[in-house]
Write a structure and sequence with these properties.
The protein is α+β, with helices and mostly antiparallel strands and about 120 residues long. It has a single domain, classed as Aminopeptidase (3-Layer(aba) Sandwich). The chain is about 25% helix and about 35% strand. It contains 3 helices and 6 strands, in the order αβββαβαββ. The radius of gyration is 14 Å and the shape is globular. InterPro entries: Acyl_CoA_acyltransferase, GNAT_dom, N-acetyltransferase. This is N-acetyltransferase domain-containing protein.
Amino acid sequence: MRYQEDGLPWYGLWTVRSTFAGTCGVFLGERCGDDPEIGYEVDVAHRGKGFALEAADAVTQAAHSVGHARLWATIRPRNIASKRVVERIGYQLVRRQPDAKGDLDYYLSARGGPCR
């Protein structure tokens, strides 16, 4: 329903053998104002197999294709794997700022206009 209303896709990730591997999608949160944020989580047994990269790329393209010009990814600096995923699909590090849990990096994927 969120996809039909807002163009915010959220998907389950499954292996070719129909084993649940994780989730990936776009949501509206508190960190990025009115802009949506991408999120994903891959089960430990399925990490390092390209699920996050493939899913994050597909979800980013889907959200951009329905008119979301700016998508964010917020990632803890120590989460090297997630940083690599978003960098490989074109997100750029815009800023680092602390929150209640420590530093948080803000990556932006912008289509159709300059980044603020």
